[in-house]
């Protein structure tokens, strides 16, 4: 099995779709970072909606956005790549434009804007992975996918920081922030479309040699619903536990979130490259073991109570982030390696559907389990994740590049 033993920036940029596409990914992430964390505040502060109503509309929009995934998969399997990526960005332009046009108190227009944003947010990861799989192969493709995730986290972090500064300006600044997001998405869409990446579906089907789905894909997609809970641990579970149950300073969850972002940006590519000597499925199973260990660590840390409890949780969060990095570096890479070439788009769409379902379900599951105590929360997450890792490990990876 071929491995990638060094990180070469120029090769990564080329494998990621070229300089223009790399800039498009960064600009798109900047726009998402400016808007996504403050969409709820926009609904409450600018439009005058209640927080529960605005939150429900956002959740409904995100879940409804998953309905687009079968269509996205079919378009990708027709050979479209950069066009679908650009379309996912343009759909979000429509969403933000509708947000700007929403009258005060109009929850239905706000929900429609959230729907367009949800469609774009769900479609973009699958379309991006398909584009990278078209221009790069083998372990170079894995490193390129990891690099894009690092760039995306950096862009979203910078966008969120910019949005935080704008919050001091009140309603006018929030509207200006939304307008800036429109411009960012438009620029990203133009850059993505300009790379003109297209795959030949007929050639792909002929080269693949078989027409069915990859073995073990259903188990992998089911396991992903549980794995993806780790992405909401720093944003949902830890703030809930640290502030409302352990009565720690809000500084602790903020520090955990910053550390998580910095670690992903700096370690995503090196860790993915270092693990390229092992099979992708083994690495993904190992990610589940690391995440399980971190959940067990959170259970032990919360038992320490005030004083040492918060620092211990923050320390275990580093282990959880490492598990997230290993998971993110192997999951999509494994799917692209397993999927028959002519079914790549639909396979990635199904995988993104499982990701979206996991992300949508995890806040509700976490907030439902947390009141029943640390054992209910962290014990359940540990057991479910370990079971998922076992299911991943039981299916051997076929010999593919």
UniProtKB/TrEMBL annotation:
<protein>
    <submittedName>
        <fullName>MFS transporter</fullName>
    </submittedName>
</protein>
<dbReference type="Pfam" id="PF07690">
    <property type="entry name" value="MFS_1"/>
</dbReference>
<dbReference type="InterPro" id="IPR050171">
    <property type="entry name" value="MFS_Transporters"/>
</dbReference>
<dbReference type="InterPro" id="IPR011701">
    <property type="entry name" value="MFS"/>
</dbReference>
<feature type="transmembrane region" description="Helical">
    <location>
        <begin position="351"/>
        <end position="370"/>
    </location>
</feature>
<feature type="transmembrane region" description="Helical">
    <location>
        <begin position="107"/>
        <end position="133"/>
    </location>
</feature>
<keyword id="KW-0472">Membrane</keyword>
<feature type="transmembrane region" description="Helical">
    <location>
        <begin position="218"/>
        <end position="242"/>
    </location>
</feature>
<dbReference type="GO" id="GO:0022857">
    <property type="term" value="F:transmembrane transporter activity"/>
</dbReference>
<keyword id="KW-1133">Transmembrane helix</keyword>
<feature type="transmembrane region" description="Helical">
    <location>
        <begin position="49"/>
        <end position="72"/>
    </location>
</feature>
<feature type="transmembrane region" description="Helical">
    <location>
        <begin position="282"/>
        <end position="301"/>
    </location>
</feature>
<keyword id="KW-0813">Transport</keyword>
<dbReference type="GO" id="GO:0005886">
    <property type="term" value="C:plasma membrane"/>
</dbReference>
<feature type="transmembrane region" description="Helical">
    <location>
        <begin position="313"/>
        <end position="339"/>
    </location>
</feature>
<feature type="transmembrane region" description="Helical">
    <location>
        <begin position="84"/>
        <end position="101"/>
    </location>
</feature>
<dbReference type="InterPro" id="IPR036259">
    <property type="entry name" value="MFS_trans_sf"/>
</dbReference>
<keyword id="KW-1003">Cell membrane</keyword>
<feature type="transmembrane region" description="Helical">
    <location>
        <begin position="254"/>
        <end position="275"/>
    </location>
</feature>
<feature type="transmembrane region" description="Helical">
    <location>
        <begin position="21"/>
        <end position="43"/>
    </location>
</feature>
<keyword id="KW-0812">Transmembrane</keyword>
<feature type="transmembrane region" description="Helical">
    <location>
        <begin position="154"/>
        <end position="177"/>
    </location>
</feature>
<feature type="transmembrane region" description="Helical">
    <location>
        <begin position="183"/>
        <end position="206"/>
    </location>
</feature>
């Amino acid at each position: 099995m071929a491995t990638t033993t060094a990180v070469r920036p120029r090769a990564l940029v080329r494998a990621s779709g070229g300089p223009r596409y790399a800039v498009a990914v960064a600009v798109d992430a900047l726009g998402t970072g400016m808007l996504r964390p403050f969409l709820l505040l926009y609904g409450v502060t600018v439009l005058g909606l209640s927080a529960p109503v605005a939150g429900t509309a956002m959740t409904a929009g995100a879940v409804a956005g998953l309905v687009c995934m079968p269509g996205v998969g079919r378009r990708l399997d027709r050979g479209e790549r950069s066009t679908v990526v650009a379309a996912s960005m343009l759909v979000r332009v429509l969403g933000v434009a509708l947000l700007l046009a929403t009258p005060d108190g109009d929850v239905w227009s706000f929900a429609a804007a959230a729907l367009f944003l949800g469609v774009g947010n769900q479609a973009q990861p699958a379309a991006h992975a398909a584009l990278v799989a078209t221009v790069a192969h083998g372990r170079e493709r894995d490193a390129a996918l990891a690099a894009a995730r690092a760039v995306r986290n950096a862009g979203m972090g910078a966008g969120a920081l910019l949005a935080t500064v704008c919050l001091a300006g009140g309603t006018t600044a929030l509207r200006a922030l939304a307008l800036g997001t429109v411009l960012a998405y438009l620029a990203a869409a133009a850059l993505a479309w300009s790379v003109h990446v297209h795959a030949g579906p007929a050639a792909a089907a002929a080269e693949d040699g078989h027409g069915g789905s990859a073995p073990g894909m259903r188990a992998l997609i089911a396991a992903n619903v549980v794995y993806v809970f780790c992405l909401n641990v720093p944003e949902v579970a830890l703030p809930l536990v640290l502030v409302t149950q352990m009565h720690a300073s809000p500084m602790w969850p903020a520090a955990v979130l910053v550390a998580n972002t910095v670690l992903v940006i700096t370690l995503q590519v090196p860790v993915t490259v270092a693990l390229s000597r092992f099979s992708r499925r083994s690495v993904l199973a190992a990610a589940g073991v690391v995440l399980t260990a971190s959940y067990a660590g959170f259970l032990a840390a919360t038992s320490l109570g005030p004083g040492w409890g918060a620092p211990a949780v923050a320390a275990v969060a580093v282990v959880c982030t490492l598990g997230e990095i290993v998971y993110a570096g192997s999951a999509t890479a494994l799917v692209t390696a397993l999927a028959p070439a002519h079914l790549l788009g639909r396979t990635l769409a199904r995988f993104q559907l499982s990701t979206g379902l996991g992300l949508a379900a995890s806040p509700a599951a976490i907030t439902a389990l947390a009141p029943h105590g640390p054992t209910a929360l962290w014990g359940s997450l540990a057991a479910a994740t370990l079971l998922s890792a076992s299911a991943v490990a039981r299916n051997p990876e076929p010999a593919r590049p």
